[in-house]
Sequence to fold (481 residues):
Amino acid sequence: MEQLQNAIAESKSHPSTRTTRPIVTGASVLAIKYKDGVMVMSDTLASYGSMARYKSVQRICKVNETTLIGASGEYSDFQYLKDLVEELTDEEFDEDDGASMSPKEIHSYLSRVMYNRRSKIDPLYNFVCVAGFKEGKSYLGALDYFGSTFEEDVFTSGYGMYIALPLIRKDWSADMDEKSAVALLEKCMTVLFYRDCRTINKYNIAKVTASGVEISKPYSLKTEWSYKRFQNPHIIE
Amino acid sequence: MDAYQKSRGGFTFDLCNRNKLLVEEKKLSVPKAFKTGTTIVGIVYKGGVVLGADTRATEGPIVCDKNCEKIHKISEKIWCCGAGTAADTENIELHRLSTGKEPRSYLTIPAPLLRYQGYVSAALVLGGVDTEGGHIYTVWPHGSTDRLPYATMGSGSLAAMAIFEANYKDDMDEKEAINLVDSAIQAGIWNDLGSGGNVDIMVIDKKTGPRMMRNYKKLNERTFHAPGLYKFPKGTTGIDNYIL
Fold:
């Protein structure tokens, strides 16, 4: 009897610590391979349910000279992933033997982390892309909160899967130059801004190429609201 | 009885009680409704409106009709595309037939839907031309409507809407409008699993009236066909014996 009472008391002091639902979330991340490397774009919003709570959040981050990661979903889990990856790069720095992790290795590591968490029914609620360019080859890997991993030419998450992916599939080609790649991603993010409620018109665009990782400062895109039938639905013509 | 049926617009709910009892007491499962996972679109252009639809009808995960017609006639210059239960959207035509009147306005369509509180699972893109020009409306199963320059409905609506948002402009000519509708339906066909088959297009021009382009694009033609009739020349089968 005493044992049972102790067990109950203990379970009360150890509440459930698994993720039941995402609280602060990021919307879509888009990434495409192009001629010189990989380009990644996302908006800078972390939503608190339907509230646009944190409007200057960077959801794409540099891992090392050859890799960057971007994530949608629970923002705190993304911060945890960033910490894990930083541990890896710190270790690498300490070893100081000239070896550097490739994007594929980082993708593999994170895929093990995600899958193990899923197997404990305590997932990291993210949809991650790992983008890299090493030794002349682009790498773009996808991870989800079930622990599935894919390696693809294009990556979209969240509503981007339904809205941006059809647009990307139409216009993407492996040898796109930088200008077309930027134009394609910007077109997709504009449409996402029109149709996904949990977005704002403020974006980061990043690229990883032979010359390393570059993440832009936040910027906005032009939007079109002046169609005749938006201004006056009862127009007669 | 006839007049009563007429006023109900072709839908009867007599068997609802029986179905409820069958499910509750006899534990029988309701037969799956034959739905159209769909991409349907409508767009206003300079000369009128263009409607488009895919041609796949699904029963759960199975394609039961590869080339069904989703663009239905309401009146000469008012047509509608239907997503949702195929039988329900086809019955919108019955509405025209049962009321015996030419609908002058889009408002006559959502009225019965509102009455059935969403049980008639029809999501429509209504397009037409009248004295005030070309109009596109969306009608939702519960009876609400939107009036828009371009609209998409169905499971493939996000893919199609992405194409519209990226490429729509005011005052397009007929060719541009048809190409845009075709791209939008194709985005649904290739990217949405509930849509597929061919592209149907309906152009309703202010001056020349409706022009149906059934199977405007045939995108999923069968590669191999059975060789066809076998013709055996006389004498192929040897004759052993005659029995007279």
Observations:
- The two ends of chain B are 66 Å apart (CA to CA).
- Helices of chain B lie at 2-7, 16-24, 86-99, 110-115, 157-167, 174-191.
